Amino acid sequence: MEIGTSQHPIYIIAETDDYLVIDKPAGLLMHETTKEEEDTLAAWLIEKYPEINTVGEDPKRPGMVHRLDREASGVLVVAKTQPIFDHLKAQFQSRTIDKEYTVLVHGKIVNEYGIIDFPIDRGREGRMVSRPKTDPLKLKNISRLEEGREARTEFFVE
Fold it and tell me: From 3.40.800.10, 3.30.2350.10, 3.30.365.10, 3.30.565.10, which CATH number describes the 2-93 domain?
């Protein structure tokens, strides 16, 4: 079923009383940022499913247990009830859910397989950035230590 925002069609792949599985289109922001965008998945969810407004941990991210970047398209699970939100969150935290992505890359890939293992965080301009790993025990690194969320990507070239 295709429904969506004024600029972005959203396809509902599956729906139960507890959750939605949707196909998020590229170009659609998950939730507003400091720029207070109005055309977001969160705004659409609240409009179509007002009861979802109380699900989750952050009212700006109703029912959202994972996310995709604005320019990425893909399948998302959105909790419609707090028990399912808690259950899905626990699965993501324990890494019992596998996430797979297909990405087009321009240029030459040196290795057919690899692991990218850098913490990620928001940079000064609000965009997501990787934080290179540094040895916190070295005195020269004290002023450069920056926290970030763990992010580990295993890739295969097809």
Answer: 3.30.2350.10
